[in-house]
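Renewal narrative, Specific Aim 1. Our central claim is that a sequence can be written position by position from structural information alone. The example that follows is taken directly from our test logs and has not been curated for this report. It begins with the structure tokens describing the chain, in the order in which they were read.
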């Protein structure tokens, strides 16, 4: 790769990494939240990300 391409790639990834994560909504319907009990993890939590990463790896 040329230096200009590498610099552009670095700028692109840095901009993507600096964007704050949006908090995930638990549900759109209050009845779903009542029946679910609120025990399931919400998408976007740290635990969800860790488990997704662990699924990709081989031990």
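The sequence written for that structure reads:
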């Amino acid at each position: 790769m040329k230096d200009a391409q590498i610099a552009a790639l670095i700028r692109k990834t840095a901009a993507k990494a600096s964007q704050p994560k949006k908090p995930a909504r638990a549900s759109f319907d209050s009845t779903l939240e009542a029946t679910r009990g609120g025990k399931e993890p919400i998408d976007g939590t740290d635990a969800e990300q860790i488990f997704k990463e662990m699924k990709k790896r081989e031990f």
